[in-house]
Inverse folding.
């Protein structure tokens, strides 16, 4: 993976932690510098993700990333009549719904769906138990599906303030 | 694969840094192509007397490289004009909110009448956590950015710099172990020392 692709991947991962484009941009910039300090190598995507995550935790949301909600109320989303199935999918709505997720949920979902990490790999990467990771992914999916099926989407208070993370 | 998954992938695939932005990030990072070790290896067979001379040259080249990187990063951060995280004209309030930095966020002395504080946010300078305060220059109406971060050995080599980089006036200076930078305007501006 060349530097450009690596930066793009890092930026997308940063957006899963901090949905504001400016903050994600900042995260990638700082992580890139840290990776190259002292003439270091660019490293792998996983290495870049780790640095981005460390900066994020240091700077903003240690409490949110380590926060854990027990697996409760995980009733399977049996409703197949989602907004997507109804043909009412809207990219903007999806973006706003992603803003309303907790950072940990969004991160787990991103790593699973976009990056193709398994639950165990996400567990290894984030230090969360595998069961917690599964719970986060499940809840994130459920919230998105329910949100897409509902009208209209109300952004979270933090999203309204332009900050991506929510507790 | 579900529809939701494919839409999520599309959502993130659309999120991209511009080529220009990637170029800026690459420019602000330390160059990997010419690490000192490579130069030393290539020069291994050169006479010892030449090594001494080249060592001096190398020191100046490295110093110049650091200065270029810091200037590029400060100019880039200023040019982005990011929204402040803490919107306030009260520097004490902004400093209290940006409490991860254990340094003064502004030079000592009275706040200069020339600048109105609009707020602040975190940023990074050469990988270190920094604060950037957004200011409005009453004299010109321009937006300026004041940076503060802990002085490092790298940054120490570029203090007392006043120049223009990418059409942005930039001034570096230090106060104790704090590195300050002021960016804005077409020519470098010094932080007013004697204010009312």
């Amino acid at each position: 993976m060349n530097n450009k692709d690596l930066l793009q991947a890092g930026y997308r991962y940063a957006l899963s932690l901090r949905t504001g484009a400016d903050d994600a941009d900042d995260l990638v910039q700082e992580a890139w510098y840290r990776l190259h300090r002292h003439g270091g190598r660019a490293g792998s995507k996983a290495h870049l993700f780790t640095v981005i995550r460390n900066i994020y935790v240091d700077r903003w949301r240690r409490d949110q990333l380590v926060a854990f909600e027990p697996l409760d109320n995980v009733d399977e989303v049996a409703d197949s009549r989602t907004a997507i199935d109804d043909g009412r999918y809207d990219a903007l709505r999806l973006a706003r719904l992603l803003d309303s997720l907790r950072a940990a949920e969004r991160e787990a979902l991103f790593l699973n769906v976009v990056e193709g990490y398994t639950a165990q790999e996400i567990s290894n990467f984030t230090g969360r138990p595998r069961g917690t990771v599964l719970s986060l992914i499940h809840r994130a999916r459920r919230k998105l599906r329910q949100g897409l099926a509902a009208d209209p989407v109300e952004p979270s208070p933090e999203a309204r303030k332009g900050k991506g993370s929510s507790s | 694969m579900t529809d939701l998954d494919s839409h999520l992938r599309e959502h993130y695939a659309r999120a991209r840094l511009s080529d220009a932005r990637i170029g800026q990030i690459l420019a602000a990072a330390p160059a990997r192509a010419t690490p000192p070790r490579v130069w030393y290896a290539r020069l291994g067979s050169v006479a010892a007397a030449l090594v001494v001379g080249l060592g001096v040259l190398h020191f100046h080249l490295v110093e110049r490289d650091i200065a270029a990187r810091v200037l590029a990063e400060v100019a880039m951060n200023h040019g982005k004009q990011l929204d402040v995280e803490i919107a306030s004209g009260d520097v004490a309030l902004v400093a209290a909110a940006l409490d991860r930095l254990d340094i003064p966020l502004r030079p000592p002395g009275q706040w200069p009448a020339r600048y109105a504080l609009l707020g602040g946010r975190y940023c990074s300078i050469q990988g270190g956590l920094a604060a950037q305060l957004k200011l409005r220059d009453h004299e010109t109406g321009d937006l300026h950015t004041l940076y503060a971060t802990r002085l490092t050995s790298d940054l120490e080599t570029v203090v007392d710099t006043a120049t223009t980089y990418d059409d942005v006036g930039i001034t570096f200076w230090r106060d104790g172990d704090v590195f300050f930078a002021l960016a804005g305007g077409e020519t470098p501006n010094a932080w007013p020392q004697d204010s009312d």
Summary: The two ends of chain A are 34 Å apart (CA to CA).
